[in-house]
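Question (not urgent): is this output format expected?
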Amino acid sequence: MLPLNQVSLPCNLEYSLPKNDPVFTLVELCNQLDYTKLYRSYIRHWRKYSPTILFKIIVYGYMRRIYSSRQLEEACNRDICFMWLLQDEPAPDHSTIARFQDERLAYAMEDLFYQLIIKLHELGEVKFENMFVDGTKIEANANRYTFVWAKAVKKNMDKLTTKTEMLFSSLCDIYAVDCDTPEELYENLVLRASELNIEFVYGRGKRKNQLQRDIENLGELLERKYKYIDYLDKLGHRNSFSKTDVDATFMRMKDDHMMNGQLKPGYNAQIGVESEYIIGVGLFPNPTDVQTLIPFLNRVQTGIKRKIANVIADAGYESEENYTYLAENNQGCYIKPQNYEISKKRKYKNNKFRVEHMEYDKDNDYYTCAYGKRLEYRYDIKSKSANGYTIIKKVYANESCEGCPYQGQCHKSKRGYRSIKISQIFMEQRKRSRENIMSDIGIILRKNRSIQVEGAFGVIKEDYGFRRFLMRGRMKTELQFFLITFAYDIKKYFNRKNTDRLNKDLF
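Got this back:
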């Protein structure tokens, strides 16, 4: 006989679960994955909990907006769906869940994610034909006021170097020593203090020896030098980082509640979407999207072990480097040109002084301005992108603009002549991309990009409430973003299956 008020549960919990609960879809898809890499990271011979069960619990928690390990522990003790996933095993505590994520799952999560994408491909849901790419800023789990700026570090480093050289030269003369570096001088002075049996004193009312003061001053400068060197090493090519999450960069977020352009530590989260599923994920420290496309595509195509046929992106990804990469890999390019919207306006079309509206003589390599003067080729300007791509721009100029009635409208240069810098390769690539997005299929893909990839970010940020990472460091934040996108894809497959929308690629 049961005690009063005690709840009895049936032996088979599956009978009490809602028949249309996504937990069944989760188990159905996850049971088809290969967990060899996960078990390889779980090297203990004995395990209190199965890694596959812990993985399913964490993913199902993300599907239910439960991200905290403590909340997952509570759900395992109270929620019947989590109890069913445990398969009669005892509920894990929060520390077990947290350690499993940080020390085990982090090394296998990307592999499991792309296994799911390949499984969706086998089910006919994903065809790897049209990938819609976009990015958004997600705030890091870092203090907003622990910033380190590259310009400030370099400026202070220069001042410190000057100050250290002056002190170094002065101390070498005072103590009559011949040293090559401040570090060598510091060791020499410390050795001298030891030989003279000078006892270092500290605190109020204690008078320091001059040698002790010189050693401390030089040591303080060297300590600051090592700190700045460490900062520069952590910065790399970035302009800032946070002390509480070194991998996070300060960026402008869209949710600027104070409307003052405040910079917050965060990551540039990139996703690729096809048929409403997120098929590629990446976190980058770059605030802008233009430098992320090539490494993102390389990573996605390595994960899925095949090439994407067409890439569709907005104007933030337009560059000669990206155009060239897609052309060399024989991939369809549907990148919106940055001047696409403004080029539709009457003011742009009637502006005869723009480079796009000048006549170009290909045989003799010169442009003709609105007044009929030739802008002839002068020299090349070479520059390199952050990824090492060389961009060559040609400079064209005329002899003089004297007597031209359009001089004030055409240019505002005080040099007395008009000059233009132009990459003809880029202009041709932009023209082809514009033709692509204005074709019949291009219009459909452009509309789907705003629906599918923007819709995915809307679900993650609004429906899942995922606006700030809970972990620190790029490896752990990527783990969390892979988990949220893995849960998103499971839920998306469940919804499409229930609403009879399977195998529908485009709206």
